[in-house]
């Protein structure tokens, strides 16, 4: 088993993650506590991995002419706090104290605008391919760390499809929630 990076949250920054600042964020509403973790998948072009296009997209630096699909997302300004690549490498785009733009129109337990009070984690992946073992390991390690820093999210893990049903399908049928929860349990009891 390869050694897993150890993570730590300091001042909204995840030590152990590569910092790739995105301009796509704003302030959370005043006195808003982080209460929810939202899991997504993304790949650019869809179902193709590598290439660095997601990073470019979240940084508003994607060259829309490079692929026909990119034209369908041209000009969109989005972000997530974290992205976990196929290798398990973790990238941070937005400070946890700030509001990333990942959820869109959404609602969780009757509370709208999930971006206001959630942390968004993208897995490099798609709705029609399995995720990599390294991604589950990294996601579990990061989640355990975030739950320590932001205790309210301990009971509140959701997929994008849970908070925007009918509109979003990610993280999709290949995301194995029981496996994720088992790995998370393992990390928390280390
Ligand atoms: Zn999503």
TrEMBL record:
Pfam family, one: Amidase_2
GO molecular function, one term: metal ion binding
Catalysed reactions listed for this entry: Hydrolyzes the link between N-acetylmuramoyl residues and L-amino acid residues in certain cell-wall glycopeptides
UniProt cross-references to InterPro entries, sorted A to Z: Amidase/PGRP_sf, Amidase_domain, NAMLAA_amidase_2
Gene3D superfamilies in the cross-refs: Peptidoglycan recognition protein-like
Localization per Swiss-Prot or TrEMBL: Cytoplasm
Domain N-acetylmuramoyl-L-alanine amidase span(s) in chain numbering: 22-172
Assigned keywords, A-Z: Cell wall biogenesis/degradation, Cytoplasm, Hydrolase, Metal-binding, Zinc
Cofactor(s) needed for function: Zn(2+)
Any GO BP: peptidoglycan turnover
First-level EC class: hydrolase
GO cellular-component term (any): cytoplasm
EC number, UniProt record: 3.5.1.28
NCBIfam families attached to this UniProt entry: PRK11789.1
Assigned protein family: Belongs to the N-acetylmuramoyl-L-alanine amidase 2 family.
Name of this chain's protein: 1,6-anhydro-N-acetylmuramyl-L-alanine amidase AmpD
Record organism: Acinetobacter bouvetii
């Amino acid at each position: 088993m390869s050694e897993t990076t150890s993570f730590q949250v300091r001042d909204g920054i995840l030590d152990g993650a590569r910092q790739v600042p995105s301009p796509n964020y704003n302030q959370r509403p005043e006195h808003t506590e982080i209460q929810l973790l939202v899991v997504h998948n993304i790949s650019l072009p869809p179902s193709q991995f590598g290439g660095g296009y997601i990073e470019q997209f979240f940084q508003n630096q994607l060259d829309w002419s490079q692929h026909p699909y990119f034209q369908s997302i041209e000009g969109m300004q989005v972000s997530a706090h974290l992205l976990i690549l196929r290798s398990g490498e973790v990238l941070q785009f937005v400070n946890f104290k700030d509001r990333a733009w990942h959820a869109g129109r959404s609602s969780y337990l009757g509370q709208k605008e999930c971006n206001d009070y959630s942390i968004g984690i993208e897995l490099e992946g798609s709705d029609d391919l399995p995720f990599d073992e390294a991604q589950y390991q990294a996601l579990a390690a990061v989640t355990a760390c975030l739950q320590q820093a932001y205790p309210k999210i301990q009971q509140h893990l959701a997929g994008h499809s849970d908070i925007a049903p009918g509109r979003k399908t990610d993280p999709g049928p290949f995301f194995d929630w029981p496996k994720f929860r088992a790995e998370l349990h393992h990390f928390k009891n280390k």
